[in-house]
Amino acid sequence: MLLCLASAPVYGQGGTSITEKTSGMDKRDGFFPIYWNAASGEIYLEIPALEQEFIYVTSMPAGLGSNDIGLDRSQLGSTRLVRFERSGPKILLVMPNLRYRADSVSEAERASVREAFAEAIIWGFKVEAEEAGRVLVNATDFVVRDANDVVRRLRGAQQGSFSLDKSRSAPVPSMLKAFPNNTEMEARITFTSIAPGRYVRDVAADPYSVTLSVRHSFVMLPDDGYTPRVFHPGAGYGSISYMDYAAPIGEAMRKHYIRRHRLIKQYADSVMSDPVSPIVYYLDPGTPEPVRGALLDGARWWADAFEAAGFSNAFQIEMLPEDADPMDVRYNTIQWVHRATRGWSYGSSVTDPRTGEIIKGHVSLGSLRVRQDYLIAEGLLAPYGDSFTADDPMLSMSLARIRQLSAHEVGHTLGLSHNFASSVNGRASVMDYPAPYAVLDENGEIELEAAYATGIGEWDKVAIAYGYAQPLPGDNEEALLDAILQRAWEDGLYYITDTDARPTGAAHPLSNLWDNGDDMVRALRHEMAVREAAMARFGEEVIRTGQPLATMEEVLVPLYLRHRYQIEATAKLLGGVTYTYAMRGDQQALVEPVEGAVQEEALEVLLDVVSAEALRVPESVRLNLPPRPPGFPMHRELFQRHTGLTFDPYTPAAAVATMVFTQILNPERAARMAYQTDRDATLPDFHGVMELVSDVVWGVSVADDPYEAELQRVVQQVWIDELIGLASDREAAPAVRALVGERLREFAEWIPDSRVSQNDRETRYYRQMVLADIERYLFREYEAEERLAGTTIPPGSPIGSEARRQMRHAFLDATATDWCSH
């Protein structure tokens, strides 16, 4: 409903008209006309009509450059449905509460829900002038503000208490734009602090004065020609949801619709048809070659999926015109984003919060990812020897990864969620996280030709069909969607997403990040073989001539930890259960525990991983790797060390042992193992698992080689530390804590009687120390002793530690309504 202001009293300054007030200003006409007063540095916004809903989007055209903090160039903020309301001399920007609605033709029924749940007033403007039903407000303070919540974000990241400095903040006149369907306003804003944090100091030109950009976009709502599509948890989409208080009693109140673009056939009665309007994406012209070509190639893969769904020429990709604005909501864009350290890429979108219709897809690709992939390949191939190949297989592998990454992030902006189970179907989806697959040829040489798959996967075609396929006239949409999913289930295609894959204690053995294959145990053994082959020839040949020898460690870390994700995948077999997102009537498989023999095989290979033989760092490395030279300081991508400047040959082993034992002793996994024998006595019980690990780790004879003997002691220490940690975890199941406590008491009884050569003082002293650690826990008076500091593991997934990932994602959850990362 539009409220005309023609007969309303004039609240402007002395009855000033808009024409008079804006005389001499630079007008940009469009959806909301804006005026720039160069003399005063002010922005005036003309509101054509009140009570007219539109979409308000915030974003960050210029960022901080810190992956850890996450204030990146081109980052989308929140997407909100808003309207302008008048209250006397004020204009209020109001955000309705769309989480609670009444899908009813009755205005009274809709009003009762609207009035029951709090709305939000985002801003209040003073009326400056009005004319012919239009209102003019001064929007300067609205534009020049912390709309992206930077202050709270920096404080939450423990980067200091910053505040907005208005004296060093101002609108950007060249970025004040108005188009028929959207209006764009931008400002440069400066934040100051007397004590900035380390991450800010690492990247900012002046960490005490950090200048970023903020963009405000007012976007016209789409017309009513879009039809929302119902959400199914097994279809591979993200969703919008709300509570419908007009739903009939006895029916579900929660309504779910998938997020997707609008795509309509030109010829509705044709099985294959061009769309009325294709989905077009534009690539950042700042992307260099050869990455540019790889990104274009990967994004184009989606055309095949749309063809399989009945659309020809539906998905296109072009270069963004030089004069176009990548933040303009009229463009679906892929941007090449630089940060100081490697990090996640993101697929975000501007979505109509009423219906789930995607208005703008926006991909942000971290530029350092390709360099990390190159580094991984260098470690595998050791290419810089006498037989250096000119065709650069490292670059070929890296570009193959970039093609896949492009397709993955674009997939998010088409509405798709991660499918972390697709690797068991032969790389059936680009929406998985793929690990580079290396093979050993008949001569034991490593080959990377098939490191990454090419093209869209079978699951991707299923997902696009569910979201975009159009029923023929006379056909039923519900029946069409059911048939699409039924065929996928019959074909054995799996779909499991983030909530069931990311947690350390996740139970589904087929849903994993950065894994390969459908047999987790076999895959881990394969990764161990590849790792062993590469480690055997690791040396100076992994770096180019002229590089400091100390930088071999940068290459060593991802190679030594190459099997880290396959370790996680294999550990999920312990206490694991397979399941689907079954709906009643789907006829899908229900919850099934992993067979006992498979769990036992998984434990066996995990224990192989922590054997001294598997943990050895090559002598050529541990004896010859020099300290860091000037200009090449220590950083988090290297192994922790207790040895000061020199390389520590034991902390890599501690890192791997920590990976393995934290997985085995995860409290949730331990509880499932403790309980699973109640269901099936043939499954491994948790006490037996701990007993077997203890026997293998502690029952082994002390190695004659002093290096291997110390590796054994490192692994033993990590196992005891993790046991004490689990026994001390008040969130762990009582059955778990009881079993772990008993295992520690058994250790305390065994250690004094364990046989150690009188000549092996190190082992004797070490075991006395371990016994003291256990007794401190067992005989504590009230609380367990503070847990000993563990080994820090170098980052794996792009942004590093899980804590930083969660911190960053929590911020995005709070500020960006539709995003996904890779």
Can you describe this structure?
With 822 residues, the protein is of the alpha+beta class. 33% of the residues lie in helices and 17% in strands. The strands form five sheets. Strands 1, 2, 3, 4, 5, 6, 8, 9, 10, 11, 12, 13 and 14 form a 13-stranded antiparallel beta sheet that branches. A six-stranded mixed beta sheet has the order 18-17-19-21-20-26. A three-stranded mixed beta sheet has the order 7-15-16. α15 (596-609) runs antiparallel to α18 and α21 runs parallel beside α23. The longest helix has 22 residues, at 706-727. It is globular and about 100 Å long. The model is unreliable at 1-11 and 799-817 (pLDDT under 50).
Number of domain units = 3
Counted by DSSP, the helix tally is 24
Strand content: 15-25%
Quaternary structure annotation: single chain
The major sheet is characterized as: 13 strands, antiparallel
Helix content range: 25-40%
Gross geometry = globular
SSE layout and pairing:
Layout: H1 18-21, E1 26-28, E2 34-37, E3 42-47, E4 54-60, E5 75-87, E6 90-95, E7 100-101, H2 107-114, E8 120-131, E9 134-138, H3 140-143, H4 150-156, E10 163-164, E11 170-171, E12 177-178, E13 182-192, H5 198-203, E14 209-219, E15 239-244, E16 254-258, E17 279-283, H6 291-300, H7 302-308, E18 315-319, E19 332-337, E20 346-351, E21 358-366, H8 369-381, H9 393-413, E22 439-440, E23 446-447, H10 458-468, H11 477-490, H12 520-536, H13 552-560, H14 564-571, E24 577-578, E25 592-593, H15 596-609, H16 612-615, H17 619-622, H18 651-664, H19 667-679, H20 686-698, H21 706-727, H22 734-750, H23 761-778, H24 802-815, E26 819-821
Parallel strand pairs: 7-15, 17-18, 17-19, 19-21
Antiparallel strand pairs: 1-2, 2-3, 3-9, 4-5, 4-14, 5-6, 6-8, 8-9, 10-13, 11-13, 12-13, 13-14, 15-16, 20-21, 20-26, 22-23, 24-25
